Each structure stands twice: as C-alpha cells, then as structure tokens.
Amino acid sequence: MSFVLGITGGIASGKSTVVDFFRAKGFPIVDGDIVAREVVEPGTEGLKALEKAFGSEIIEKTGGLDRKKLGALIFHDEEKRNLLNKTLDPFIRGEIKRQTEEAKESNDLVIVDVPLLYEGKYEAMMDKVAVVYVTPEIQLHRLMARNKLTKKEALGRINSQLSLDEKREQADILIDNCGSQETTHQQVLDWLKENKYVS
C-alpha cells in the first residue's frame, strides 16, 4: 500500500528545504507549484479557460501566458483573484491527483508538496499532512531577509495565507524548522525510520 504524505507550510517556513530532503532520499515529489505552471502552458485547456475568463490580453504573441498582465489584473482585486483560483482549480487538482496516482504505482511513499494545502482543501487527497512550522517572528525575519521586503510588505504576504499556527493545529505531523537545517532533517529522518521507509 502506498502512503501519500502532503507537505505544507507558510511562506518562508522552510517547506522547500524539507521537500528537498525527501527528494534527496529518493522519494517522488508531486510539486503543486510546478503543476500550477504546467496547466497553463501554451495550448493547454487550462490556458484556454484563463483566456475565456480574463480575455485575450493576458496571452502573449507567442501563445504563452503573460503573467505580468494577469498579475496586474488580480493583484488588487479579490473578485478576480477568486475567479483565477476557481478557473484553474479543476486543472491543478486533476493533475496533482493524476501525478500522485501514477507515483503510487511504483513507490511506497509519495510526497505531495502543496503550498496552500489547507486553503485549497487538499487534505482529503492525503493519508497524512506534515506542516513545516516556524514561529511568526522567525517567519517574518526570514521573509524580509530572503525577499528584501519591508516589514509591512512581508506581513502583507504572510497575512494573505492561513496562519502557521492554524495550520499547526490541523497537522498530523509537525516539523519544527525553528532551529538548524540539521535539526529539521533529523526530524524527517526519524519519521522515515519510524515508518520503515528507510533503515
């Protein structure tokens, strides 16, 4: 029986570090961010649906998606942002499901990396969900340093997601990333050993 572990966190919580560790151990990763890009490649049904919803001005002359124009349309408009999510959700969800099922055929453990897992109600697709957690102070500090943002800009991005404390309460597995990378990796390794995925 193949086990599907969903991994999520908040912006700058270190989720990618944890996912990279699973990848380095040889486990297949279904990456929600990559899927979201793939479903709007030129010629895809996802891109056609976006064009229908937002008009042809979001399509470049080369046939690709003009992310800048789309971004400008949705940035300050919650209604349009919701329309974007509603339009792409079936394509992204369907492709994540397809890739997960395919990976399950030949692997005991499949990692599904979805940044907005709880927000998008993806937990039903997972056997368990691991949340990569840091304190709000560490999250703010790391995001400001990483993206060269002011405190106000960083808080704006953090507050656009479900808080890490709310995600922590829903988590089946908590990976504490407040310390060093080694400490974080050790927690993942311990879980893998406990569940007999590595010896």
Description:
The chain is α/β, with parallel strands linked by helices and 199 residues long. The chain has one domain: 3-Layer(aba) Sandwich (Rossmann fold), CATH 3.40.50. The chain is built from nine helices and five strands; from the N terminus they run βαβααααββαααβα. The protein has helices at residues 15-24, 32-38, 45-54, 67-74, 78-104, 136-147, 151-159, 164-170, 181-194; strands spanning 3-8, 29-31, 109-113, 128-133, 173-176. Strands 2-3-1-4-5 form a five-stranded parallel sheet, sandwiched between helices. Helix 1 packs across helix 9 (181-194), helix 3 (45-54) runs antiparallel to helix 5 and helix 6 (136-147) packs across helix 7. The longest helix is centred in the middle third of the chain and has 27 residues, at 78-104. The radius of gyration is 18 Å and the shape is globular. The chain starts with a strand and ends in a 5-residue tail after the last helix.
